[in-house]
Design goal:
Metallo-beta-lactamase, Chain A, 8 helices, single chain, binds fe (ii) ion, alpha/beta, seven-stranded mixed beta sheet, globular
């Protein structure tokens, strides 16, 4: 049993907590995104969904304790990614929170009231060993994405991908030029794109060597279905309750 316990601890896992889609009847779907990353013994929350009630309820049903988080990363200042933040900060005072440096002064001072240690992200850097931010990327709204290095390649986690999902993939390749990209997951922001545009994006993913794709949140059903058609069993229909074991992405 000890052996199993150790093996279990070594596994790195991503669990989707909030999403427009759900994979389990006991978890609520709601517009927004939030996922938990257990990686190298650390517990990282990426975004907080749109609503603290849904976030807290889904977390409880997934057995996740907000007091056990080591850090919080917020992709961008949109309500459907920041909505549950006060519930998290209330349960976990002094939490380190990585936000794009363009966040409004008023929002940052609100977070400090909860004792949050705000780290304003400008450039790409390694936050924890193997866990990176892309830095604040220019777009309709400035946004950062997370990069997670694993034995199977690098994972890219996006909130809404306002800077453009292809541009985020290309940025990841500049930051970690020797890495293969195992998976791109999260919101791809393709709701208003034509099928042809989406197919071109998929072609760019394949050119970049992206092995798995998991479009959810604001990607749209058409994009999900086109990605699924082109990626086959390397497409993951992500939703609340999805669990991805990083070492299994080979
Ligand atoms: Fe969003
Ligand atoms: Fe957004």
């Amino acid at each position: 049993m000890m052996h199993n316990g150790r093996q279990h601890q070594k596994r790195s896992v991503i669990k989707v907590i909030c999403d427009n889609y759900t994979t389990r009847d006991d978890l609520e779907a709601s517009w927004g995104f939030s996922c938990l990353i257990r990686y190298q013994g650390r517990t990282i929350l990426f975004d907080t969904g749109s609503d603290s009630v849904v976030l807290e309820q889904n977390m409880a049903r997934l057995g996740i304790d907000p007091a056990g988080l080591d850090l919080l990363m917020i992709s961008h200042q949109h309500w459907d990614h920041t909505g549950g933040i006060y519930a998290i900060l209330n349960a976990n005072r002094n939490l380190r929170v990585f936000v794009p440096c363009s966040f409004s002064a008023h929002f940052k001072s609100d977070l400090k009231r909860y004792g949050a240690q705000i780290i304003e992200v400008q450039e790409a850097h390694e936050i924890l060993p193997g866990f990176f931010t892309t830095g604040e990327l220019e777009g309709l709204l400035p946004e950062q994405a997370a990069l997670v290095r694993t034995s199977s390649g690098t994972l890219i986690i996006t909130g809404c991908a306002h800077p453009g999902i292809v541009s985020i993939v290309e940025t990841a390749k500049i930051i970690l030029p020797k890495d293969e990209i195992a998976l791109v997951m999260g919101g791809f922001h393709l709701l208003h794109y034509s099928d042809d545009d989406i197919l071109q994006i998929i072609a760019r993913f394949k050119d970049a060597g992206v092995r798995y794709a998991a479009a959810s949140h604001c990607s749209g059903d058409r994009a999900r279905n086109l990605f699924a058609r082109e990626y086959g069993d390397h497409f993951i229909y992500l939703g609340a309750g999805s669990e991805i074991i990083l070492e299994n992405l080979a």
